[in-house]
Write a structure and sequence with these properties.
Blueprint: E1 13-14, E2 25-26, E3 29-30, E4 45-50, E5 55-68, E6 77-88, E7 94-98
Antiparallel strand pairs: 1-2, 2-3, 4-7, 5-6
């Protein structure tokens, strides 16, 4: 990607300036690397692109906290559970790239 240029001879990827707090860009858009995405392999989603401002995460209900006295006797354990939900607010806001099957 670093060597690709547009029709006017400008590079598609621009390296940012870390000292000035400017991130790198691809086609003028900021990007980040997500290590949790699939590795580059057949039939895998390897790239997400779009407006992640349209991606919403919400906390559902109240947290649940439990005390585990018997399991950790003579000590005491505490366990908690918090539920979350997520949704893309606009259907076309984020797209993905799936690699070829073979």
């Amino acid at each position: 990607i670093r060597k690709l240029k547009d029709g006017q001879g400008n590079y598609l990827w621009q390296m940012g300036d870390v000292t000035a707090g400017q991130p790198g860009t691809l086609l003028g858009y900021r990007y980040s690397i997500n290590q949790a995405m699939d590795s580059l392999a057949a039939a895998k989603k390897v790239v997400l692109f779009g407006d992640f401002g349209k991606y919403y995460v919400r906390k559902v209900g109240a947290p649940v906290i439990g005390v585990l006295r018997e399991r950790f006797w003579p000590d005491m354990g505490i366990a908690g559970l918090i539920r979350f939900d997520d949704e893309i607010g606009q259907a076309g806001a984020v797209r993905h790239l799936i690699t070829a099957a073979s």
